[in-house]
């Protein structure tokens, strides 16, 4: 966007806002809706909240006799809209009495706030945000759309205020801005997601929306320009509101479907932020104004107040464009959902009690009160949790000490490997924190029905009763749940088929019972102790198994699986680190250098060298991305093994002259576990690397099929073949060994052989599937 274009846009918006302000100042918003009765009288059917009529005392049901010295049917706003606006004098009849009201052209308190202060504040913010975007982001494609969106918001509030006074140009601008906001939203995100190489909006849908909105605008323009009667006003208003709801629902559907497709990808937080921004912006307008007006002919909140919420949307856009790191939106969504559930009961109780005490309050008013009270309780719960978090050290010192002890215990577990030392610390920590007289950590052996003291105190308590209790309820005690038994309490710390580790607690020194926080603390610290026991046992089993492996040639499949899982985690970590650090730094340098090349004029030699450096940076960025993709294949789970292999072959063919013939049997539908999918992908990846760098192959054939509960992959190439396991074509024994062990890690079989003419290599891989992931043959 050029500077002159930006200036013209700002000047035009400012000029229109000044004109609409003069209309707002000249006429007070009266807010009377009328309807002609069968005896040709005009009865007041609606008195708008905050309007001049409400302040003057004009009532619903009054009969309008005269407006500005003329009959009601001669007043322009009554003729066209069934509304009374731009009037100085109104005479009504109520219960046989005549009342005369003079409408002063001055500001009523609420009108001054909604129609002058609020629009001015919104316009000022729109100008400031637009200036910020123009100064710092003018070279980005989304900037123009975002600036237009801000100016649309800025002018919409002024147009809405003047539109309430039945000014035709203001009504047309108000309708245009209302319909344009969702469309500008779609445009913004079409351009915004281009930099992520994502396309999720169908052009036909956007095209149809533009056509439909244009027709509605033309219909509105015809009504405003020509002397149509008021019956069309209600119809056009319904069409406009319906079109706005359709636009908004399309936006929500598009982003919702995009979120569903990408909910497990790296773009999930981005889609959640967008969806939340749309929801907060449009939900109040649709649910509390548009739908009630469309169905019940009466709004829950005024259009001006409802429209204020939509300003949250462009603020969301500014955040997306300007930030480099997104909020953890999942955390806030879950908290809001939790607060919403908690707020339902007190809000309903408040309304029920109010309805019992007050009889003359209409139902609509109770609905409005419920919405306000419900939102108030959500806010109160949020503030309460924030205060609990910030002040917990002072207000809840005992609970804070319990939490601190858990942090210290976990830190201790992370550095200690001795089982006896851990048990001693565990017992001493509980005894000190809870102030117990006695404590004991016991081990119950079911086979010999005996209790052995592992750590702690020995004192006189109901040991026989405890032993009977453990024997009768072996395997049925809830882990970590505190059980009462006469003068003692006990809880299960760990349990296996033969033994139970039980913690016995004596009385507290101050003779008080355990409170809820202490019980929860005991359960938590016991859980960590249980995890520690399991880890120590697994380490012992692993050491024993590895000792046995030393005497064998082949490692068991579970060891291979563990090693390959560790390798994949390291690959993923390295890929993430490269993407989040090195790649982002290179992109930043590339964008800065591109900006400098566009901003400044260099001599031809310097520009040529800078262009060369710029292209080099682009190559580095490409190489890092390719490395990240090789380390951790993108969308492997989403696309499945066939789609992932097809993508791999495309990349191989781009950088080599290999001819790859890949066939996946299309007569079956398969469901393969993530583990097998990854194993197959890595095997084929290694085979492609071998064909490209070592075997001198020019053609590769890969066939993927299945037979009942097995998946089979057949590989052939026309390379050098192999002469035993040490063939140079396979980069030494390591290539064969790596592929063979990868297949064995998923309990598969692999066979290597040369073709009959010894001019190539043939490999057959057969992998059994899990019982819960069978291949379903389609006949």
UniProtKB/TrEMBL annotation:
Query: Keywords in UniProt for this one?
Result: ATP-binding, Kinase, Membrane, Nucleotide-binding, Transferase, Transmembrane, Transmembrane helix, Two-component regulatory system
Q: Which Pfam families match?
A: HATPase_c, HisKA_3
Q: Give the E.C. number(s).
A: 2.7.13.3
The Histidine kinase domain covers: 680-771
Q: Name one GO molecular function term.
A: protein dimerization activity
InterPro entries found in the cross-reference section:
HATPase_C_sf, HATPase_dom, His_kinase_dom, PDZ_sf, Sensor_HK_TwoCompSys, Sig_transdc_His_kin_sub3_dim/P
Q: Which Gene3D superfamilies match?
A: 2.30.42.10, Histidine kinase-like ATPase, C-terminal domain
Residues passing through the membrane, by range? 112-132, 144-163, 169-193, 205-229, 235-255, 276-296, 308-327, 336-357, 363-383
Which reactions are catalysed by this chain? ATP + protein L-histidine = ADP + protein N-phospho-L-histidine
- Which PROSITE patterns does this entry report, sorted A to Z? HIS_KIN
Enzyme class, broadest EC rank:
transferase
Q: Name one GO cellular component term.
A: membrane
The protein, known as = histidine kinase
Per the UniProt entry, what species is this protein from, by scientific name? Schinkia azotoformans LMG 9581
């Amino acid at each position: 966007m050029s500077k002159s274009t930006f200036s013209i846009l700002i000047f035009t918006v400012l000029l229109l806002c000044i004109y609409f302000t003069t209309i707002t100042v000249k006429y007070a918003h009266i807010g009377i809706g009328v309807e002609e009765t069968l005896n040709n009288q005009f009865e007041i059917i609606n008195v708008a909240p905050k309007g001049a009529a409400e302040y003057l005392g004009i009532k619903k049901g009054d009969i309008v006799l005269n407006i500005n010295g003329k009959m009601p049917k001669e007043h322009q706003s009554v003729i066209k809209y069934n509304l009374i606006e731009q009037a100085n004098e109104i005479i009504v009849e109520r219960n046989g009495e005549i009342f005369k009201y003079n409408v002063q052209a001055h500001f009523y308190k609420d009108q001054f706030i909604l129609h002058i202060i609020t629009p001015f504040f919104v316009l000022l913010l729109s100008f400031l945000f637009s200036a910020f975007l123009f100064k710092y982001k003018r070279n980005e494609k989304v900037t123009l759309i975002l600036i237009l969106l801000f100016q649309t918001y800025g002018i919409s509030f002024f147009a809405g205020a003047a539109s309430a006074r039945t000014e035709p140009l203001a009504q047309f601008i108000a309708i245009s801005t209302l319909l344009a906001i969702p469309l500008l939203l779609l445009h913004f995100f079409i351009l915004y997601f281009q930099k992520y190489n994502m396309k999720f909006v169908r052009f036909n849908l956007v095209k149809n929306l533009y056509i439909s909105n244009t027709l509605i605008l033309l219909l509105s323009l015809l009504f405003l320009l020509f002397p149509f009667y008021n019956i069309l006003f209600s119809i056009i208003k319904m069409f406009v509101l319906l079109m706005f709801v359709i636009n908004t629902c399309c936006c929500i559907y598009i982003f919702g479907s995009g979120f569903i497709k990408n909910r497990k990808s790296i773009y999930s937080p981005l889609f959640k932020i967008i969806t939340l921004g749309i929801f907060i912006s449009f939900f109040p307008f649709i649910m509390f104004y548009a739908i009630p007006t469309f169905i019940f002919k009466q709004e829950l909140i005024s259009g001006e107040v409802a429209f204020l919420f939509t300003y949250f949307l462009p603020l969301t856009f500014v955040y997306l464009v300007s930030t480099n790191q997104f909020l953890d939106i999942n955390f806030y969504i879950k908290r809001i959902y939790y607060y919403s559930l908690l707020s339902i009961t007190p809000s309903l109780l408040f309304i029920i009690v109010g309805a019992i005490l007050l009889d003359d309050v209409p139902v609509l008013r109770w609905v409005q009160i419920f919405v306000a009270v419900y939102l108030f309780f959500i806010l109160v719960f949020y503030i309460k949790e924030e205060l609990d978090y910030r002040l917990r050290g002072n207000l809840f010192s005992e609970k804070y000490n319990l939490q601190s002890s858990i942090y210290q215990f976990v830190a201790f577990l992370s550095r200690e490997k001795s089982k006896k030392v851990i048990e001693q610390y565990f017992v001493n920590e509980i005894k000190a924190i809870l102030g117990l007289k006695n404590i004991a950590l016991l081990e119950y052996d079911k086979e010999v029905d005996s209790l052995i003291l592992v750590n702690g105190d020995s004192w006189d308590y109901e040991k026989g009763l405890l032993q009977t209790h453990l024997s009768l309820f072996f395997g049925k005690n809830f882990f970590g749940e505190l059980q009462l038994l006469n003068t003692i309490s006990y809880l299960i710390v760990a349990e296996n088929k033969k033994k139970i580790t039980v913690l016995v607690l004596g009385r507290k020194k101050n003779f008080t019972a355990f409170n809820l926080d202490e019980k929860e603390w005991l359960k938590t610290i016991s859980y960590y102790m249980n995890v520690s026991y399991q880890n120590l046992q697994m380490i012992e089993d692993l050491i024993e198994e590895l000792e046995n492996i030393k005497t064998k040639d082949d490692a068991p499949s579970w060891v291979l699986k563990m090693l390959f899982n560790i390798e994949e985690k390291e690959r993923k970590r390295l890929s993430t680190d490269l993407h989040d650090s090195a790649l982002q730094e290179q992109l930043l340098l590339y964008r800065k250098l591109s900006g400098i090349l566009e901003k400044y004029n260099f001599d031809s030699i310097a520009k040529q060298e800078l262009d060369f450096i710029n292209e080099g940076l682009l190559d580095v960025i490409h190489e890092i991305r390719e490395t990240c993709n090789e380390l951790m294949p993108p969308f492997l789970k989403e696309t499945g093994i066939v789609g992932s292999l097809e993508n791999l072959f495309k990349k191989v063919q781009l950088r080599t002259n290999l001819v790859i013939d890949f066939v996946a049997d299309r007569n079956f539908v398969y469901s393969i576990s993530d583990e097998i999918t990854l194993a197959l992908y890595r095997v084929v990846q290694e085979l492609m690397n071998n064909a490209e760098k070592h075997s001198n192959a020019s053609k590769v054939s890969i066939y993927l099929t299945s037979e009942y509960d097995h998946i089979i992959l057949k590989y052939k190439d026309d390379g050098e073949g192999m002469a035993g396991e040490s063939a140079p074509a396979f980069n030494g024994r390591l290539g064969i060994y790596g592929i063979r062990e990868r297949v064995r890690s998923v309990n598969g079989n692999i066979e290597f052989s040369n073709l009959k003419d010894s001019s190539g290599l043939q490999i057959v891989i057969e992998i059994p599937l899990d019982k819960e992931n069978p291949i379903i043959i389609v006949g």
